[in-house]
């Protein structure tokens, strides 16, 4: 009998210890803008996520005049509906109580997301390729991927060099690193033409760590969540992050890859313009710190010749034969069929059929007229997407 009781006690203790150990894919610590956005995105990307709030609620800073998209835009729309506020209102003001109410309701409704409140982490360390965190309530969290949102105490405990964390940069077409964008649009010095590269979220010396240097940014937090979720979902190391897959996931969750102020998420062609835009094939114009795609502007040969030739070998031959200074709709389709190995007759009929329905264009389908930037972006994305061309960590095309 005593032997039975002893074995039962050992089994029960072992069960208790296992029950107190939780193994999520992604673990986030913090109650800031970036922390909550990271947790929301990771969970929405279908990985088990835990967000540890060491306080009783969220501590959300004013968002200001960023170019809103993704989680941040959704949060502001929820604030507007709660207050309620007119949809046309510019900068949305909210207090901490309102932010907490909105985020509590939202996070409670998200599958795969667990929020732990009023619990401290008391020990943090490596565990194989993952992590181990001891909490003040007796639980142990063993995540595969950890998102550290500029927590200095964690930096010290885990020997993280915070100086290696990236910073927001001004977007310039002179440096192709912008093609590795995963977050854009934070207003800095009056400009929203800003970006943050995927590779600035990763630390070569810290595998399976996503480091967020700007705790105030939901835009950056969402990007961190997508990066962590990719590694967690596919059981990969963060060093194996696939830029295009992560960018595609962010687009799927309505996050900008290019800070175009004149093409919003409600635009029928937003996705195509974003994906072609980040490739640099059609470049935007900057005015007073704002990046304008100018979709209705007509396309000249000079502005697209070199970018398209850079992406596709066969385009060099086509442009050698194309002498006109403008690109008509007919020219564009001819180029697409030639470079993309499409049957000209069937492609022409297909595009004409899609013109007003699928693409939502209001212009007439006339082959002889000059094509607009919007129309060209949509056709390129549909038939020969430059977004799919592989680039390196510096944004340069890999041949």
The structural class is: alpha/beta
C-alpha-based Rg, rounded: 24 Å
The level of helicity is 25-40%
Sequence stretches where pLDDT stays below 50 over 5 or more residues: 4-18
Kindly report the average pLDDT value: 92
What is the overall number of helices?
Answer: 13
Span of the ends, CA to CA:
74 Å
Largest sheet properties:
6 strands, mixed
Strand content: 15-25%
Order of helices and strands: HEEHEHHEEEEEHEEEEEHHHEEHHHHH
The tally of strands reads 15
**Shape field:** elongated
Spatial order of strands in the largest sheet: 4-3-2-8-13-12
How would you describe this protein?
There is one protein chain. This protein is α/β, with parallel strands linked by helices. It has 13 helices and 15 strands. The chain has a 6-stranded mixed beta sheet, covered by helices on one side. Helix 6 packs across helix 7. The radius of gyration is 24 Å and the shape is elongated. The model is unreliable at 4-18 (pLDDT under 50).
List the helices and strands and how they pair.
Elements: H1 2-19, E1 21-22, E2 26-29, H2 33-44, E3 49-53, H3 70-82, H4 96-108, E4 113-117, E5 121-127, E6 130-135, E7 140-141, E8 145-149, H5 152-158, E9 169-170, E10 181-184, E11 194-197, E12 202-203, E13 206-212, H6 218-234, H7 243-252, H8 270-279, E14 285-287, E15 290-292, H9 301-311, H10 313-321, H11 329-339, H12 344-354, H13 373-383
Parallel strand pairs: 1-7, 2-3, 2-8, 3-4, 8-13
Antiparallel strand pairs: 5-6, 6-7, 9-11, 10-11, 12-13, 14-15
């Amino acid at each position: 009998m005593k032997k039975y009781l002893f074995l039962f006690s050992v089994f029960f203790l072992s069960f208790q210890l296992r029950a107190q150990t939780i193994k999520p894919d992604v673990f986030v610590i913090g109650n800031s803008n970036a922390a909550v956005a990271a947790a929301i995105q990771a969970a929405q990307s279908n990985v088990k996520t835990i967000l540890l709030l060491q306080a009783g609620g969220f501590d959300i800073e004013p968002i200001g005049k960023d170019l809103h998209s993704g989680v941040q835009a959704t949060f502001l729309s929820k604030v507007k509906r709660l207050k309620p506020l007119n949809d046309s209102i510019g900068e949305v003001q909210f207090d901490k109580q309102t932010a907490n109410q909105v985020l509590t309701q939202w996070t409670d409704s998200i599958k795969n997301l667990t929020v732990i409140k009023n619990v401290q982490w008391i020990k943090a360390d490596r565990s194989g390729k993952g992590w181990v965190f001891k909490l003040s309530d007796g639980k142990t969290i063993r995540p595969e991927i950890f998102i550290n949102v500029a927590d200095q105490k964690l930096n010290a405990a885990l020997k993280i060099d915070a100086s290696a964390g990236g910073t927001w940069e001004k977007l310039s077409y002179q440096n192709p690193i912008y093609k590795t964008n995963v977050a854009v649009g934070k207003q800095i010095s009056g400009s929203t033409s800003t970006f943050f590269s995927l590779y600035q979220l990763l630390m070569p010396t810290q595998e399976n760590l996503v480091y967020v240097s700007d705790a105030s940014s939901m835009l950056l937090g969402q990007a961190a969540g997508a990066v962590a979720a990719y590694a967690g979902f596919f059981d990969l190391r963060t060093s194996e992050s696939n830029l295009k897959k992560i960018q595609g996931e962010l687009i799927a969750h309505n996050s900008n890859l290019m800070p175009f102020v004149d093409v919003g998420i409600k635009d029928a062609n937003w996705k195509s313009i974003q994906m072609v835009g980040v490739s640099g094939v059609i470049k935007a114009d900057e005015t007073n710190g704002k990046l304008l795609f100018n979709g209705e502007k007509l396309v000249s040969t000079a502005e697209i010749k070199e970018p398209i030739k850079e992406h596709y070998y066969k385009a060099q031959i086509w442009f050698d034969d194309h002498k006109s200074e403008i690109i008509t709709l007919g020219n564009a389709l001819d180029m697409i069929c030639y470079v993309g190995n499409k049957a000209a007759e069937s492609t022409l009929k297909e595009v004409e059929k899609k013109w007003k329905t699928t693409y939502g264009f209001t212009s007439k389908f006339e082959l002889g007229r000059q094509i607009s930037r919007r129309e060209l972006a949509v056709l390129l994305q549909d038939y020969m997407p430059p977004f799919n061309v592989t680039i390196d960590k510096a944004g340069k095309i890999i041949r």
